[in-house]
Amino acid sequence: MPDVATAPAPTASTSVTVRPVASGSDRKRFIDFVYDHYADDPHFVPPLRMDQQKVLNPKKNPFFEHGQIQLFLAEDAQGKLVGRIAGIVNGMHLQKYDDATGFFGFFESIEDYGVAEALLDAAAGWLRDQGMQAVRGPANPTLNDTSGLLVDGFDREPSILMAYNKPYYEGFLLRYGFERAMTMFAYYVHKKYLDTAKLERGTEIVRRRNPGLTLRTMDMSRFMDEAMIAKDIYNEAWSENWGHVPMTDHEFEHLAKDLKQVIEPDLVYFLEMDGEPVAFSVTIPNLNQALKHVSGGRLFPLGLPTLLARAKLGGVYETRMPLLGVRKDYHGRGFDSLMVLETIQRGKAKGYEACEMSWVLESNKRLINALDAVGAVVDKTYALFEKRLDA
Description:
34% of the residues lie in helices and 27% in strands. The protein has 12 helices and 14 strands. The chain has helices spanning 24-37, 49-55, 91-97, 113-129, 169-176, 197-209, 223-237, 249-260, 288-291, 303-315, 335-349, 365-373; strands spanning 11-12, 16-20, 68-76, 81-89, 101-109, 134-137, 149-152, 179-190, 213-217, 268-273, 276-285, 318-326, 354-361, 377-388.
């Protein structure tokens, strides 16, 4: 499916013109804008340009097998770029929910509500043309990617694959008529403040009650087989969670190949009951601690040596757990707590001082209770917003 459907005509206001991306040079400007927009922000971590290009390339991102993305640029009267946005139709979301809900994403704007309004109008208009009746976001392009809006925690860098944005974006969305649909938390666990005694007692009870339960690390010699096991567990475990959309085989393979570059196998766990995988978790080094020193998101010619040097010299001392899932039949047995404890203990032994566990839906009370029990604190808050397109 092509990434650009029939493009609408340019949208204009007294101070800004919004037009669809229509060429390779437009796409380059769309990607480049974020680096200029955050140039003076000390907490912004520039994403790698090659990753941004891949996300938006229909030949490299399997999202386009079922979805569409229309990119828009906002320019002022002098032709200067002042914002960007994307309208997104997620075929897998529509297949599961049949709710005529589209998405917006890749949203950036200078601090001028008129610019933000024009961008949101353009995305909403395109989504209406695709038959959508509601819009949710930000999703870049799906909730399985770097998505959500940061609404609290602007005074520190985001963890790897987590969103970062200007503080005024939430106000712009609310003014436009969006309402918060879901709040998500990034929990932070530091070795100085760990209190694992209660969790250790709880996991001992879990092991006694489940004598066939074993924990193993990832077998990298069977990497893609292991990834597909994780996909099956993930799609089942999250199937009833708010907003969940199952990943296709190609999407999960795409994610797994990206993660393979940064995975530490002894921080990836599978729980098996009588030899059958029933749960998994993935924890990765927080490479943002090194990426923040890579100028402009470019690995070449100088960025790669800088990245490797920072990582090797102890510049990466935190981790992030982005994935955790337990099969439905085993919900409520404390298996997630067991993997959380294992991650904390092994990470500490490997020299990692802290771990971010994100994101956690505000409705996931079981996991929140487990994190509270070990002394984890909410470090950042994210949100997703939605709006009826007829409102």
